[in-house]
Write a structure and sequence with these properties.
With about 350 residues, the chain is α/β, with parallel strands linked by helices. It has 15 helices and 16 strands.
Length: about 350
Amino acid sequence: MKWMIYGANGYTGELIARQAVKQGMTPVLAGRRADAIAKLGEELGCETRVFNLSLDKATRQLEDIDLVLHCAGPFADTSRPMVEACLATKTHYLDITGEIEVFEYIHSKKRAKLAQEAGVLLCSGVGFDVIPTDCVSRKLKELMPDATNLALGFSAAAGISRGTLKTAIRGLGSSSAERKDGELTPFPLGEKRRHIDFGRGKKTAIAIPWGDVSTAYYTTGIPNITTWVPVPTAYAYGARLLSWFSPILGSDAVQGKLLRYVDEHVSGPDESERERSSTYVWGEATNASGRKVIVRIKTASTYAFTVYGALEVVSRLVSSGRVIPGSFTPAMLFGSHFIEEIEGSSSFVVDEVRL
């Protein structure tokens, strides 16, 4: 397959492009910034293309492309024109988003049907968002087929990129979310707190609107899903207070100032920070009778994992020559043990307890 990295000039896109070439792959590098794309393409010896994500421009540029790895966020803005262009050109679509809105769009019945009719595979979240937690959710479903409740989370130490921070800022004006009785349900950020041992002792954690409240539902069918991250205890209570100011934080004026600050002052974790950091992933399934199963696994740092995970997905699809059309999560495509086969990951550790 001839494949493309769109957003190759971004922080994560460039990391993926460099590692792809290091592994002997030859992606087409594309994006919106001509100077950055040209410079990277010359350095790596890759074909380059420059285009904005309007449907007509993207469609023309994808006519000879078999697969796109979409790395240009915020994905709530950029994924739809890219997906529509992929459907029009029969190009398989991958991205590294963690945004619930995008997952719901990809997995809608209409989009899944269009993908099947076009012979196109759509799979969002082929990076740290959401391969590890998606595989954990499938592992828990295998261990407990009758699970009614699923909780997922992770504890990460590495820094944050410009694009990821921008996505987080855009979410300041919204609420948290969970899957409740099969439906996505909002609630105030900071309202739900608990203590969780992600793998390094119990920590205070809050529920956040992570992508798995969408993807894990499609992977497992479990109707009640929450997602968690550890925070300092003071922040757990402060987050609830912060939610009261969401109308202000979500205003155009405040958003504009925060986003400009990110552009001017944030780059992303350097190589040493990525390499020395690990991430601890945790999941818990509970059934109606009170049985509980917990699964933990350690992975590479979030950005390193995204590079390894995204390229492993691309490699498997490109080398197989056989792609099933439709909308999928990573664990739906490759199974629960996929995470254990990605560089930097340990093996699953399983605990079972009775309530």
